[in-house]
Description:
The complex is a heterodimer.
Chain A: H1 3-31, H2 39-54, H3 64-88, H4 104-115, H5 125-128, H6 131-161, H7 171-196, E1 207-217, E2 229-236, H8 241-250, H9 271-296, H10 299-326, H11 356-369, H12 384-395, H13 406-425, E3 431-432, E4 435-436, H14 439-463, H15 467-471, H16 477-492, H17 507-536, H18 553-568, H19 572-587
Antiparallel strand pairs in A: 1-2, 3-4
Chain B: H1 12-24, H2 28-31, H3 35-58, H4 63-101, E1 106-110, E2 119-123, E3 132-136, E4 145-149, E5 151-155, H5 157-160, E6 166-169, E7 176-177, E8 182-192, H6 200-209, H7 217-238, H8 240-257, H9 269-279, H10 282-301, E9 304-306, H11 309-317, E10 320-324, H12 325-329, E11 330-341, H13 347-358, H14 364-377, E12 390-392, E13 400-405, E14 408-413, H15 415-424, H16 431-442, E15 446-452, E16 455-466, H17 470-479, E17 483-487, H18 492-502, E18 506-508, H19 513-525, E19 530-534, H20 540-545, E20 548-552, H21 557-562, E21 565-567, H22 574-611, H23 632-653, H24 662-695
Parallel strand pairs in B: 10-17, 10-19, 17-18, 19-20, 20-21
Antiparallel strand pairs in B: 1-2, 1-3, 3-8, 4-7, 4-8, 5-6, 5-8, 9-21, 11-16, 12-13, 13-14, 14-15, 15-16
Helix pairs in contact in B: 1-4, 3-4, 3-9, 4-6, 4-9, 4-10, 4-23, 7-9, 9-22, 9-23, 10-22, 10-23, 11-22, 13-14, 22-23, 22-24, 23-24
Amino acid sequence: MTGEAWISIGLLMLVVLLLVKPVGAFLARVYEFQPLFGLDKLFGPLERGIYRLCGIRMDDEQNWKQYAAACLVFNFLGFLAVYAIQRLQGSLPLNPAGMKAVPPSLAFNTAASFITNTNWQNYAGESTMSYGTQMAALTVQNFLSAATGMAILVALIRGLVRKTTSGIGNFWVDVTRSVLYVLLPICVIFSLILVSQGVPQTLERYVHVKLVEPFVAPAVASGAASRPEAVASQTIAVGPVASQEAIKELGTNGGGFFNANSAHPFENPTGLTNFLEETAILLIPLAFCYTFGRMVGDTRQGWAILAAMVILLLAFMIPCVITEQAGNPLLAKYCNQRPTALQPGGNMEGKEARLGPVNSAIFDSTATGTSTGAVNSMLDSFTPLGGLFPLWLIQLSEVAPGGIGSGLYGMLMFVLVTVFIAGLMIGRTPEYLGKKIEAFEMKMASIAILVPPSLALLGTAVACVIAQGVAGIANPGAHGFTEILYAMTSQANNNGSAFAGLNGDTPFYNIVGGLIMLIARYWTIIPPLAIAGSLANKKIVPAGSGTLSTHTPLFVFVLLGIIVVVVALTFFPALALGPLAEQLQTFAGHF
Amino acid sequence: MASRKPLNLFQGDIFRRAVRDALIKLNPRHQIRNPVMFVVFLGAILTTALFVQSLAGHGEAPTWFIFWISVWLWFTVFFANFAEAMAEGRGKAQADTLRRARRDTPARKLSAPQRAAAATEVPASTLRKGDIILCEAGDSIPADGEVVGGVASVDESAITGESAPVIREAGGDRSSVTGGTRVLSDWLIIRVGANPGEAFLDRMIAMVEGAKRQKTPNEIALNILLAGFTIVCLLATATLLPYSIYSAAAVNAALAAAGKAMVARAVPITTLVALLVCLIPTTIGGLLSAIGIAGMDRMIQANVIATSGRAVEAAGDVDVLLLDKTGTITLGNRQAVAFHPAPGVAERDLADAAQLSSLADETPEGRSIVVLAKNKYGMRQRDIDDLGARFVPFTAQTRMSGVDLPGRPIRKGADSAVEKYVCALGGSFPPAVRSKADEISRQGSTPLLVAQGPAVLGTIELKDIVKGGIRERFAELRAMGIKTVMVTGDNPLTAAAIAAEAGVDDFLAQATPETKLKLIRDYQQHGQLVAMTGDGTNDAPALAQADVAVAMNTGTQAAKEAGNMVDLDSNPTKLIEVVETGKQLLMTRGALTTFSIANDVSKYFAIIPVMFASTYPALTRLNIMDLNPQTAVLSAVIFNALIIIALIPVALRGVRYRPRPAHELLWNNILIYGVGGLLAPFIGIKLIDLLLNIRF
């Protein structure tokens, strides 16, 4: 790895980790209803107005079932809205490009994708969605799905903190406060910075320009009607990009305004925006660790989990950077892939020249580690091993550090399992933060941990034996298998990033994928809420020298071991048939 | 039964019985109770079917391969059954012994609780709660009950293993009798306290036999976790079939395009089953119920009968131990340690008077005074009759005892009683003696005053003797995070002094049943689990409230029913062992779960590289153990089966337990069972593979 790579990773981690404490502390104030440095004065009337309008009472505590029901109803309404707007966009305003209605199966997939914070895209934004759809349907859900994840996490934390009560907070209040006090203010600032770097923010129609150098496009290989064609003009898609871009990263959503996502110069024009987008992606998922520590009254607990998350992320990000920087071994004898003053070196296929392999690998690892579907380079063109690490990061069930809210509540499920096993080893029935972990918690944690890998494995299994599944792949053999595995894994973990190379806009992939995203999201939301409800009812056992410390390096080590063995290695056989086989063949000299 | 023997795992008869039971347990209805092993069971059936199919000439893999995989899968199931049967074996043997004590003896039923009442002979099995029966010397007591009349010595060795007879009498804390014990002398009138089938002996048999064993809460939770893990593994292996069908087809297409032979084949189902069995947590799955049974059994070895496995588990969680001072922290009785003469009295004279007054006093305190005087001044024991003395026993009225020598009445007793005595005789009570007595009280000892006629001679200091080593024991408990609380009827001053000497964390002085109950509730309010021992009827409410309540076998029926364990040795110190056994049980579960999960890493590396070899030969580069591709899968399956056998001793004996703080325990167990579990199969599978290839 080059010095530049170390600096890039080091700087990113440094900036994010410096922000963890202030942002995390602020988040804790938001959910504990403490003063917010004037922000509450600014938005307070709006917040209270919303409650009055919707008939919400701030002090109305919900039990876990009511909380879950509120979450499901809220998200279902969001689903209906996104579906309807897509289907009706032809007759809705803000459609300068005259986009037609989105086909039903694609609209279903997209609606499922955006309400679940997955942001899997079987469409190209600039040629499918009107400005109105992008703003009113997709960007709105970018905020609301993120806020949903934040609310669920806060409810789980309350379950750990409270004793002998059934209330775990109020979903409506938690969502409203997440949007008003956290997501909206940061996004406004972040959008303005993006605009300053050249990201468009306009409702004007697409720009048509005459090419300075017209050219003749070669015929498409197949199809008798296809002939070489002279190209003299180009349509440049623009739109309200900056506002969607900001929440796309901050809310770990990842659904790009353009098909090329953050590889597109209008989404991610400069090295600075690339860095800021990475920072925005990691910011809240990691800051929540500190929030967690603050709210449970022991910040060491939060730092321990943060350490586990960062170790996992770096353990996958660094090898990804190394393999991409190393380039393709088969090209070694034809060209120089080493970085020099004039070239970044490494595997440049599918990468932006302004970003280079290092920052592409860092960005894509960051995005896959956080359930952000964003990419700034094409994973399909990564070396097999280089592609393996982002894929494996998703397969960790999105806990390194995972999506906004969802990463930490997912990680806490693993913590409960670790506490259970490690707790037994010290000769006590397990407890976490003074709460006894019993059969009900284990059942729920097992479901939450079980669902994403099961869906990924089953989805892939179905896709690689039926014709509609295999038809979508662009490359045969091991690489094609990776394309399917990646698509299913990404949707089953609500990540949304695409390996590309797979044509997902078919009824099969739209419907199966949509269902997988819905099941994965809500069956990882209900169990933590159930656990929150169960834990809130329990007493808190005071800690002593006989209780398991859950903030020590040893505990972090055991936690990592459990994650690696229980989920990461589960995918090892599948990975052996995909990227591993491909890479080993590459080393052996086969294409 | 109950003499404590070192655990011999492979005692011939238990071993033979376990082998037979292990075969009986192959019944699917038994297998389905354990989700992990049920998967192995189904895998064994499936591979056996595949073997039959291959015999018919349609083998999906070489016949020898399917055969051996199938054989070792059956072994895996059998070994798990065997582990459980071994754990049950000891209990069953003990249950047989106990059953012999429960003979259907004739009972003499009385019409009224008087010896002279009319008696009818009825079979013991017809006795009901509330019936009155008479037992005379030589009779076997037919049912549990409470003595309502008579005094007798009773041989309880059938239950407790203790051969010395015990006294049972009406009223007080020695009134309970257990069915199956035998009256040695005199007679007893007993009110039957339990219907047939509900008696202590019945419960004990059910317990040791494990017949009524239900899964404990923690065991259920662990089972859920293991089942979840098994489902993940099941999906991960089952989906490999479509994956490999796709991969083989893709590779064959490429080979055909290049004009080469299409050699890629989908993975045989036998190999997938083998992979599945290796990945699911069979080690802990196979040993889980054995660990639970063995935990109960270790309690029984310690002569403690737990009424449920839940109680054993709760013992591991105990945060607070309530310990009775007398008998647990201090030796049962106070002992004389010093003579403090009154002004103008020689210490030797005091010692002489004290010894004289105690010669006929058979209480332990009295004996200790005689011994102290002998040790200090060489005063030999004198015969009280030779001296022409008359012994004055202790009465509740005088609260003094003593001796009347001719012209020399000596009395000893508490300060207030002696003061009253000397003042009545016209003597005075010297202030120096009073201040000495107060000082002794403050130090946690008891002052016993001696007077001769109207003259106070001085004070004997009686001291509670803290048991040797108990302080260290409490320090260990503290390190484990367990708080010790001494419960005593003494005044706070005395209690504080003894508490400090014994090193307990806290004490409850002037304890009454009510204050005891309140203390337990207070701790529980703060989420802590409380353990205690008790024997008297007045302990029953506290016993019922405590999370772990060990009743003494010598105690009353009420105490035994309120507690969730009965200590047959009636040794209050046993509570500490009970806690340790509970912890050891949980630790064994955790350690073997960790071991089982850590094992998986190596199995992936043993099996995956060779299972896709026909499709992607390049994957064999991952064969880091350099196993023979023909035997690698079989080696992993054999290791997986043998490790169950190898760990049976750990499951039955429990992991090594030392009282240490939590983080040290975790370190040790992670190192041994986590890191060990990671490395052991790499070595084991490699060795087995080498052995297989010597023969091949």
